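User: What would this chain look like folded?
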Amino acid sequence: MRMLIRIMDKLITLKELSEILKVPPSTIYSWTHMQFIPHYKLGKSLRFKESDIEKWLQKRYCKGRATRKIDINTIL
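Assistant: Here's the prediction, encoded as structure tokens.
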């Protein structure tokens, strides 16, 4: 029963994901075509599990630098 609960996490539509990530739907279509983003294909519809997207985003987190790196050659 626990497995069924995990599988049945809330699924969101392409439009909803587009609004959440602030990217055009065409970008998300490209990502799914390249297998870059986790998704489910239900007939002709795409769906995304919220928990999968959260994990996917966490993997792409980049911590900013504490200081700015300056290349002295570009200044001279």
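Residues 2-63 form a domain with the Arc Repressor Mutant, subunit A fold (CATH 1.10.10). If you want, I can go into more detail on any region.
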